[in-house]
């Protein structure tokens, strides 16, 4: 398993910050009320505006941070202030930093309370699902849990005890609209011209394997993170000093993808994997991966968990069915 950590280390570049009003929480706050999480709404909006939108696969992976239907999503956005390549790269880099901060805040919420995590995804992050039953029970993403745990799930005949338990668990997860705090990065491989900022540039900025020494955690991010820890959750397992986040990568192959383009993407992926390994080695040598027992989430460790090569037709159909 490849791992690499994000250090909230010494900065040299100041990021633009989402505006939010962060006042200290009170013990009387109902953490399962959407109003209690107003301070995270600007961060949810950041994720809501991800190109290609966020949506959930049937196995619970949250897909985003890549092009969905067209590689045009990778091309530079129009901005009157960005008249040259370097300006555009700086803007895109800071955009990926903001997305990563938003994602890490939501993942932290997921480790504190899965119900709150799902509520924010559904109501404020604009998450779609390939499972038409996901997030559809109740109003505005709220579920009716009355007698939900009492519903009997029957496995098909011939299942072993272990297989039956696994089947029942999966059915409960499907019923509850289960969503993993795991991202899938995607790239659409088609005939395309060279662009100023490649998909591997964006992934490298997000995963902190590219220009990481320039990164400075925004004040809004640090304040929101402190607010999450201060929320009156039920007592549970402490959040570790290193919080692991799984990442999958998928390449969508279209009929217009040339062998040259495919090879170029594979080389880019190889370089990304090498960067991951090198960074992980450096962090291990520096002793940064020591485990602490206190609630802190000082660093986030990303694990490259899966690589898929798929034909784009299934994604086009999914976009048509669930748009």
TrEMBL record:
Residues 1-25, 66-91 are annotated as: Disordered. Residues 75-87 have a biased composition (Acidic residues). It comes from the Eukaryota. This is Uncharacterized protein. It comes from Phytophthora sojae (strain P6497).
């Amino acid at each position: 398993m490849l791992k690499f950590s994000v250090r909230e280390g010494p900065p040299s570049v100041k990021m633009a910050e989402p505006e939010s009003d962060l006042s200290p929480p009170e013990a009387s706050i109902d953490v399962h009320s959407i109003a209690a999480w107003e301070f995270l709404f600007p961060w949810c909006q950041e994720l809501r505006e991800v190109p290609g939108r966020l949506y959930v696969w049937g196995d619970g992976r949250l897909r985003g941070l890549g092009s969905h239907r067209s590689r045009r999503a990778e091309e530079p956005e129009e901005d009157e202030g960005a008249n040259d390549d370097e300006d555009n790269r700086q803007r895109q880099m800071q955009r990926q930093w903001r997305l990563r901060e938003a994602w890490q805040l939501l993942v932290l919420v997921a480790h504190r309370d899965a119900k709150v995590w799902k509520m924010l995804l559904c109501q404020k992050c604009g998450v779609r699902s390939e499972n038409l039953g996901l997030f559809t029970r109740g109003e505005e993403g709220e579920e009716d849990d009355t007698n939900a745990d009492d519903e009997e799930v029957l496995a098909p005949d011939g299942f072993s005890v272990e297989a039956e338990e696994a089947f029942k668990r999966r059915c409960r997860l499907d019923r509850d609209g289960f969503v993993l705090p795991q991202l899938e990065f995607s790239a659409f491989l088609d005939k395309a011209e060279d662009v100023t900022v490649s998909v591997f540039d964006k992934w490298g900025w997000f995963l902190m394997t590219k220009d990481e020494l320039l990164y400075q955690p925004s004040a809004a991010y640090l304040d929101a993170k402190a607010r999450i820890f201060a929320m009156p959750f039920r007592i549970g397992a402490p959040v570790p000093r290193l919080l692991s986040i799984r990442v999958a990568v998928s390449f969508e192959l279209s009929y217009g993808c040339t062998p040259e383009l495919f090879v170029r993407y594979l080389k880019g992926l190889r370089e990304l994997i090498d960067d991951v390994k090198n960074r992980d080695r450096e962090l291990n040598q520096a002793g940064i991966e020591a485990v602490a027992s206190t609630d802190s989430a000082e660093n986030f460790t990303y694990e490259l968990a899966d690589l898929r090569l798929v034909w784009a037709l299934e994604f086009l159909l999914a976009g048509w069915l669930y748009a």
